[in-house]
């Protein structure tokens, strides 16, 4: 009971939850009342994916590197690849009931969640810069698997060169790799000293938060737009679609249950076991960020694959809609669970 009281009285926790729900509802209201046109969500998403999230990713790496931060960051990066291999294996639980195109759609939409668009803005609001850093490192594997295994799963074809360019030239991936390289090798880069006496700072010339603070102020402002832009776009998108038809498909509910509750629970157990073994050990911040990303609705790219290759297009669209609504509740649930586990000293 004391742990529950501690969780629900945490202002950071309450602030993140209220902000998420309130801004999503604001986006819903603005679109539903016609104050924003149907092009609004697309415009916000374009700014989010090409400007705000890359800025957020890069800014997260403008920090000192310590032994613990380095270890957790590297483990998050490596665990990302382990996690997606495990998710591919875990997704075969659908074999019990489904086969053919429905099986491929269920598996693909379960493996690939909206980690970038939906997850990272919430992680940024709740876990701050450290959480964002670990989340972006974990998410590198997501991009690699999404444009390779995801494409092959839905298309039945071999990986094409154009998908490699989507991985490499994606603005978020580029900014993540650039920031990661600066962060990791800041001790080996040319060093400069700023200031004098007790206030002097010596570090890598590419630590732009120190050497070009005016430039990083602009980057920081752009990055801070990520959460509100994402939540507004989600609300506006929900306002454009009817929930009535989507709720009638029982498979959508099966999918949502597995995607939002079963898979995050399985991966949470894996992370806790790994931590107890000292293998790719992650701390509370990294574990929470990963669980949040796993409890997201299907990635837009994955749904696009399903529609483009005619693999249960209607089901995929309905699953995206219903799970988007339910994921808000699921993420709140997981934030509560993980905060409670952390307070109890379990994670």
UniProtKB/TrEMBL annotation:
One of its GO terms (biological process) is transmembrane transport. It is a multi-pass membrane protein. Keywords: Cell membrane, Membrane, Plasmid, Transmembrane, Transmembrane helix, Transport. It is found in: Membrane. Its main location: membrane. The chain crosses the membrane at residues 12-31, 43-62, 74-96, 108-127, 133-155, 167-185, 218-241, 253-274, 286-307, 319-341. GO terms for cellular component: membrane. This is Malate permease. It comes from Erysipelothrix larvae.
